[in-house]
Every structure is written in C-alpha cells, then in structure tokens.
Specification:
With 304 residues, the chain is α+β, with helices and mostly antiparallel strands. Helices cover 25% and strands 26% of the residues. The chain is built from 7 helices and 19 strands. The strands form 6 sheets. Strands 2, 5, 7, 8, 9, 11, 13 and 14 form an 8-stranded antiparallel beta sheet that branches. Bound molecules: zinc ion. Zinc ion binds next to loops.
C-alpha cells in the first residue's frame, strides 16, 4: 500500500512538473540568457520531490564487488526493476559530434554493438563522463583495445575503448571532465574512434538515451532505467548476458529494435527535425505516435 501511493505521487509530480517546465520555457522564449537559470530552478524543484519520494537509486547498494580485472563481472547480479540515474554533473567524453556507429544490433556481424562510436582522432583527449573511480585499465587486443572502465556514484559504469593511451590507473579517483585517455584505433577497430558504453550493473544501456553527442548535452537531468523496457538497450534480446532473458529471447522481434532519441530545440518543427534525422515526417510521426500538426515543446524527446 505504501509503495503504490508513493508511485502514484511520483508519476503525478512528474506530470505536473513537466507541464510547468514546458510552460516556463514558452514564457521566456525571447529571453535566452536566463533560460539556463530557470531550468536549474526547475531541477531543484524536481529534486525536492524526488528526494522525498525515492530512495532506491543508491549506487552504493547496487554494487557489492570491486573487480579490477574482469570487465563483465556481474553475471549473477540482480538488477533492480528500475533505477534513477542522476545525469547532472556530466561532461561529454569528447567534443566530437560525429556518431559513426550507433548502439544496437548489427545485421552484418549478427551481434549487438553495445556502445556508441564517436569519431575522434588519434591523440584527441578523452575525458571522464562523471566523477568516479577507475575500475579497469586493460588492453583487449581483439575487442576494446586499450580501454578504461570507470564506476560512478550515480550507478553507471562507463567504458572508453580503442584508446591510443590510457592516462589513469586502477583505483584512481577522477572528476567529470578529467582526461582519462587519448583517442585511438587499438583493438578491433577500423579507423580511430571512441567506443563509448554506459552500463548499469553490467547491463548495457544505449548511451544515446542519456548522451546527446550532436548537441553535446545530456537528454535530461535524470534517466530512469527500467529493466523490462526493451527499447532501453536491447539487453533482453541478448539472453544470458545478465543471467536472465532466455525466455525473452524467443519473444517478439521488437526487442531487437533499438531507438535513438532526439531532444527538441526551441522553434523546431517536425519538418525541421525529420530533415535533420533523414526521415519523412510521416515516419517520425508514426514512431512517436504524433500527428503532423502536433506542437512540439523544447526539451521533448522524440524517438527515431
Ligand atoms: Zn563501437
């Protein structure tokens, strides 16, 4: 009974606040300089409500081991049904906006690509996405190449692959934005790029759900991971990767599908966004269950 009423309250609070947010953004359409500050105020209001209602997103409770040798060491760990990830305090790992390969199933290789590839040149500085502690600094000749794994207090672990040089050591504590390596082309890689993964207790989540490299921003202050939501990372289709999911493997092909996300900017129409994403307006509407005349609000997240 307790949890049910809390849940209702949280959902209600979010609905209310997102309404407030859209409203206030509309009001200040011509006052761009204070937009950021107002957004921060909204964040504070949201945080107050979340603090009162949710205490379950504690990374300290999520992880029970500190394994500095084995990257994928969580096969027996039980994921929470949902987990709220705090994305504030992020830093984009690279200023590059050029995504060369997305997360998801690659038919050509018949396997999942569990990260996002971002074009960087050998020697480009790669920085930590959040404050954290370095768990792995290793070389994987047939895969990640020279790579670094960092665990963050928000529950995420981030992986940075194909580096030409690692600049941190195991157990180092790093700050968001601190250089941790240099871009490169090591391991299974053709052409220098950064392979970037975001994982929660071993479960890969599409980084594009949280990190918008094109706009060099996160998709929101928080990201709520949901274990049984296939669009959040395809992990259900992998079977066994998390010690579960065998039954889901046989289920529909929809779990093979991964979406990418686009955050609407002020003044953008469906036509503008469809053009940017290389889609027809019809397609964009059908994916997002929108009508062609739908009015978009800044900050709204579209799937594509
Ligand atoms: Zn990759």
């Amino acid at each position: 009974m307790h949890s049910i009423s809390l849940k209702g309250f949280v959902v209600g609070a979010f609905a209310f606040l997102s309404g407030v947010s859209a409203f206030s953004q509309d009001l200040i359409a011509s006052q761009a300089p204070i937009d950021r500050r107002l957004k921060a105020v909204d964040s504070v209001a949201i945080q107050r409500i979340i603090d009162k209602t949710e205490t379950w997103s504690d990374a300290g409770e999520l992880y029970t081991s500190w394994n500095t040798q084995n990257t994928h060491c969580y096969s027996s760990a039980e994921l929470p049904d949902s987990f709220k990830i705090d994305l504030r305090g992020f830093c984009m790992p690279t200023p590059s906006r050029n995504i060369t390969s997305r997360y998801g199933y690659r038919a050509a290789f018949r396997r999942q690509h569990k990260g996002l590839d971002i074009k960087v040149y050998t020697g480009d500085t790669i920085v930590a996405a959040f404050d954290g502690k370095v768990r792995i600094v290793r070389y994987d000749r047939g895969g990640y190449g020279k790579y670094v794994v960092i665990r963050h207090p928000n529950g995420l672990e981030t992986i940075y692959g194909h580096l030409s040089k690692q600049l941190v050591a195991v157990d180092d504590e790093v700050k968001a934005g601190e250089p941790i390596g240099l871009g490169g082309n090591t391991g299974r890689s053709t052409g220098s790029h950064l392979h970037f993964e975001t994982r929660l207790l071993g479960r890969a989540i599409d980084p594009a759900l949280m990190f918008d490299f094109v706009n060099q921003d996160v998709t929101g202050d928080y990201f709520v991971f949901r274990k049984n939501e296939p669009s959040q990372g395809n992990a259900l289709a992998q079977g066994g990767a998390n010690g579960r999911g065998k039954a889901s493997t046989a289920s529909s092909g929809s779990s093979q599908r991964s979406f990418h996300y686009y955050k609407v900017k002020r003044g953008e129409s469906l036509y503008v966004i469809a053009g940017k994403l290389g889609l027809t307006v019809d397609k964009l509407c059908s994916i997002n269950r929108l009508r062609k005349k739908s009015v978009l609000r800044p900050g709204q997240i579209l799937r594509y």
